[in-house]
Amino acid sequence: MSGKKRARRGGRGVSERAWIRVYRTEALRQQKGKCVFCLEPLTLGRTTAEHVNPRAKGGSTSAENIAAACQPCNSLKANMSEKVFRNLIRNPDRAERRRFEFFMANARFRIFRRMALAERRIRRAAGLKE
Ligand SMILES: [Zn+2]
Description:
With 130 residues, this protein is mainly α. It has helices spanning 3-8, 16-30, 71-77, 82-90, 99-125, and strands at 48-51, 66-69. The chain contains five helices and two strands. It is flat and about 50 Å long. It has a two-stranded antiparallel ribbon. Residues 35, 37-38, 40, 69-70, 73, 108 line the site of zinc ion (ZN). Residues 35, 37-38, 40, 69-70, 73, 108 line the site of zinc ion.
């Protein structure tokens, strides 16, 4: 089996890191340059590759399973499922551990969601496409 084929199937061959960079770049483009969880605008250099279904739970390194996330969200999510993590960001008082970080993620989410709504309103008012 060639190394390229192995990496594409999610193996941890020599080129997995290269594939992760490709998937991360593509995910950031699809997410319009924002963290998949808190919506913070990111530059490519500040973007981490987030395994939506965690590796520890069998999640693969594939385009379908890699999202672009800010470092704090990626680190905080760790091995949680996407559903549990999103719920804790929206309801940080339910977090049993790392409560400070969950409150900060909640603050980012509220700020950047508002920013996105404001941008949409301004674009519409200015007659620009969204
Ligand atoms: Zn984030």
